[in-house]
């Protein structure tokens, strides 16, 4: 079963074509990476996938439904962590988790989710008083409290220190082991190489490479995904 199906997706803003014929599919249980520099089309693609943007043309299906038409229905089955999302400064961690859990019919125990993500000791702290790393972890916890079938993670380790990044990778690995499908949007090649079964590299709104990290490394003759990415970017200019 394909959890995500994107075919010839196109989206423009005025004369700027942000997404120009993107196609890929993500299988159930797969961790799939969308890689690319700022302005490559990653964010617009994700916004079309979660129903925040309506494509100009092409087809998008998530869990068998059109996100533009069935956004509310999918919201109960898809967890989303967006890099630019924010919460009210005075909202406490426990209040946020309890609220988000209430949106779902069969949520996880939000107290256990906080503990799992290293936030159990700050449950009574206000969002505005959290560090950047704590805010990022809270956003991840909020995305996962509803036991989603698909989770979309946008730059999930931005703002985390190296130790916290590694701990987050371990938790995402545990998420994968549970059978949850994940779409990981990142510009960290080491992260994508560690977490992703397959990746799509975007440049100027188009997919310029698609495959496993090992396939991309082998195809470019590189020694790592970071080197393969640089080679692909150079060839795509």
Automatic annotation (TrEMBL):
Identify the GO cellular component terms for this protein.
plasma membrane
Q: Name one GO biological process term.
A: response to antibiotic
Provide the GO MF annotations for this entry. ATP binding; ATP hydrolysis activity
* Superkingdom: Bacteria
Q: Where in the cell is it found?
A: Cell membrane
The alphabetical list of record keywords is: Antibiotic resistance, ATP-binding, Cell membrane, Membrane, Nucleotide-binding, Translocase, Transport
Ranges for the ABC transporter domain? 4-229
Q: Which CDD domains match?
A: ABC_DR_subfamily_A
Name of the protein in its database record: ABC transporter ATP-binding protein
Q: Identify the species of origin.
A: Nonomuraea zeae
